[in-house]
């Protein structure tokens, strides 16, 4: 059966929107300037800034006045407890599974956070399995995490597709294991010149639909007018 690998944050779920909501509530609860929301979002950098660095920066900005437990709650559970799985993505995953695809989530991050997102959104009942970087000791784009994902669901990487929003972690990672890929652009232009996705889609639902519909279609040329690999 064909294997479909899926990124979690800002692919299947809108992690940034969820963190923004949690951060806005945090600032209001602690009577901090609403204008600090953009600063906090930049600091967080879609979760790529190490947790301890975010906590340290917040402590310095607010002169250590914030309860440490409140900061940890924001960083550990703020986004995780608020993410939702869009209905269109849920339906696309259901179609993929019904068509015989083996679906596995491959995500960087900490187990507690990422599993909270997977279970709270019902992804645990939709996909066949998942692999989290903290658990396997390797982060995307390292090939090892993709091999671990395939092994976890008893599938082969031969013929696999990878869907994700991060050029380096997801698309470069797919290239490293010889897999085809769909970049979830969210309206962004593709700017990398040394590697490229097989296809570009606006969101995860469209990306999944493309894979399910076009599996086996050979890659030829890129049509710059439509941002689409044919």
Task: Give short descriptive properties of this protein.
two-stranded antiparallel ribbon, 8 strands, six-stranded parallel β-sheet, disordered C terminus, 230 residues, single chain, alpha/beta, 10 helices
Spell out the blueprint of helices and strands.
Blueprint lengths: L2 E4 L8 H15 L6 H9 L6 H11 L6 H11 L8 H12 L3 E6 L3 H10 L8 E4 H4 L6 H10 L8 E4 L2 H10 L3 E5 L14 E3 L2 H11 L7 E2 L4 E2 L1
Parallel strand pairs: 1-2, 1-4, 2-3, 4-5, 5-6
Antiparallel strand pairs: 7-8
Helix pairs in contact: 1-2, 3-4, 5-10
Question: What can you tell me about this protein's structure?
Answer:
There is one protein chain. By secondary structure, the protein is α/β, with parallel strands linked by helices. Helix content is 45%, strand content 13%. It contains ten helices and eight strands. The protein has helices at 15-29, 36-44, 51-61, 68-78, 87-98, 111-120, 133-136, 143-152, 167-176, 204-214; strands spanning 3-6, 102-107, 129-132, 161-164, 180-184, 199-201, 222-223, 228-229. A six-stranded parallel β-sheet has the order 3-2-1-4-5-6, sandwiched between helices. Helix 5 (87-98) packs parallel to helix 10. The radius of gyration is 18 Å and the shape is elongated. The two termini are 24 Å apart.
